[in-house]
Amino acid sequence: MLARDFSGITQAGEKPVRTEVAYDALDRVQKVRHRKQADDAETADFTFTRFAYDLNSNVETRVEDGAETPDGSPVTAVSAYGETCRTAYS
User: Fold this and answer.
1) In which region does residue 75 sit, left (phi positive, over 0), alpha (psi from -120 to 50) or beta (all else)?
2) Region at 13 (left for phi over 0; alpha for psi -120 to 50; beta for the rest)
3) 46 with 70: CB under 8 angstroms?
4) Of 37, 33, 39, nearest to 71 (Cα)?
5) Would you put residue 27 in left (φ > 0), alpha (ψ -120 to 50) or beta?
6) How far apart are CA 5 and CA 21, in angstroms?
7) In the chain, helix, strand, coil percent, each to 5?
């Protein structure tokens, strides 16, 4: 799914945010990535959050603030939150 968010643009020169969402076979969010549309939009990196689920569809692992190229290649290391941090975001 692809979305462009024009809300919050208050200056004539501001660009919208491009958001892409990937779902798994059970319609759970698998990955969300976004970037501000820029003049070099085809080469600008995306910031992403990725989710993994247990057998009961609870979030088992959440990876945040990852950076990847438009083709999905990783750019930076990411922070993962798993079972030990469940109470922090459930």
Assistant:
1) alpha
2) alpha
3) yes
4) 33
5) left
6) 13
7) 10, 45, 45
pLDDT band for position 90 (50/70/90)? very low
User: Among candidates 89, 45, 33, which has minimal Cα distance to 70?
Assistant: 45
What is the per-residue pLDDT across 18-75, written as a single tens digit (0 to 9) for each?
888 999 999 999 999 988 877 666 778 899 999 999 999 999 999 888 888 888 888 8
Cα distance between residue 62 and residue 42, in whole Å:
27
* Residue 8 in this model has a pLDDT that exceeds 90: no
**Nearest by Cα to 3 from 34, 25, 31, 42:** 34
Q: How confident is the model at residue 79 (pLDDT cuts 50, 70, 90)?
A: low
Indicate the DSSP class of residue 87: H
